[in-house]
Amino acid sequence: MLQNKIPVIVLLGPPGSGKGTQAKRMQDAHPKWVHVSTGNLFRAEITSGSDLGNSVKDILAEGRLVSDEVTNKVFKSQLLKILDAGGAETLILDGYPRTSGQAAYLVDLVKRENRLAEPVPVELSVPESEVVNRLAGRWVNPRTGRVYHEKLNPPQKEDFCDDDGGELIQRPDDRPEVIRSRYKLYVEQRDGIVSGLGSKDKLVPVDGQGSLEEISRRLEQVFANLRS
To answer: Is the model's pLDDT at 228 over the cut of 50?
Structure first.
């Protein structure tokens, strides 16, 4: 049992595994399960007009990578707002932590924040060949980060987002040779993240192949087991 603490699921998976799509489906099905994505955290902090948000805005505008230190500060700032708002029953982290340093920070933060349970890494397992096939048909809303696939998860109107009606784009790094490089990098980062969270034995694999509904059911079962 989690002793009334909020479960923290670190949702991992290679590029194209469907992390964001599945996390959103979980939140839609369970309104008190909160999908916490790095992109949304940055946007929220920038929108708040805080000094921290303005510094992130400047970093992104200059095309620089946001450091672990700044990313951790943004994560903490937005996480505390979510917790203080109340009502969250499960947190699904998507895109954070991305490094072993961020993972160690998360573990320390959870220890100091008695409302949260120990983070558990859950990975959507998808082989490299499948990732290449998926990303070749991926389209993205550059304004919100919502992801579509021309066959697996198409928008209602071709080339346009269901949410804001704006035009979708295809990322320049969704080329096979780049995707394979990104897959290799993900595996290296995943091992560091899981180690940073405490132990590789904690990683819970979930088959990430099949229909959206099939994958959602598998995740639902895993999440239910973790919450019980």
So the answer is: yes
Beta strands in the chain (DSSP E): 8-12, 33-37, 90-94, 120-125, 138-140, 147-149, 204-207
pLDDT greater than 70 at residue 1: no
Tell me the C-alpha distance between 129 and 112, whole Å. Answer: 41
Is CATH 3.40.50.300 correct for 8-127+200-227?
yes
Residues forming a β-bridge with 120: 9
What tokens appear for 172 in the block?
A: 């320049």
* Domain boundaries, given as residue ranges, for the chain: 8-127+200-227
Torsion angle, CA of 24/29/32/34, rounded to 10 degrees?
A: -10
Helix 38-48 to helix 68-85 angle (10° resolution) is: 80
